[in-house]
Specification:
The chain is mainly β. It contains 1 helix and 10 strands. It comes from Nitratidesulfovibrio oxamicus.
């Protein structure tokens, strides 16, 4: 996985009013994927499938989780601190966030800026 910061934290002044409104809408949206594939008392598995140009809405991560890229591709992600990141994924790239909770959360979106579908699996830990 290759990450590049294209707008540093604090860069909200570069965002459009529509982007800022979408961020506000996502501040309490805990649907972190496109579809819940499985859920029990311990974890929830989300699938994310984004065609080229497709956008996954702003959403809030407030539970420990990890994601795994099931396809290669490129994405742009805007974060609630104002930063914007472009990421190049390879199949199998995985990232784990263990220090996330309702007081230590983040909000972001994902836009597929590549030429092929982006597919992820995200697992949230509920306990």
């Amino acid at each position: 996985m290759k990450r590049k910061c294209v707008v540093p934290a604090g860069g909200l002044e570069f965002w459009s009013n529509e982007q800022k409104a979408a961020l506000g809408d996502g501040m309490h949206d805990t649907n972190v994927g496109c579809h819940v594939a499985y859920e029990n008392d311990h974890f929830r598995i989300w699938t994310i499938h984004l065609s080229p140009g497709e956008w996954l809405h702003f959403h809030r991560h407030e539970r420990p989780y990890y994601w795994t890229a099931l396809s290669a591709g490129r994405a742009r992600s805007r974060h609630d601190d104002g930063s914007v990141w472009e990421v190049e994924y390879e199949v199998g790239d995985t990232k784990y966030f263990d220090k996330i909770d309702k007081d230590n959360f983040f909000v972001h979106d994902v836009l597929n800026i590549g030429e092929s579908p982006l597919v992820f699996s995200t697992v949230e830990f509920l306990r």
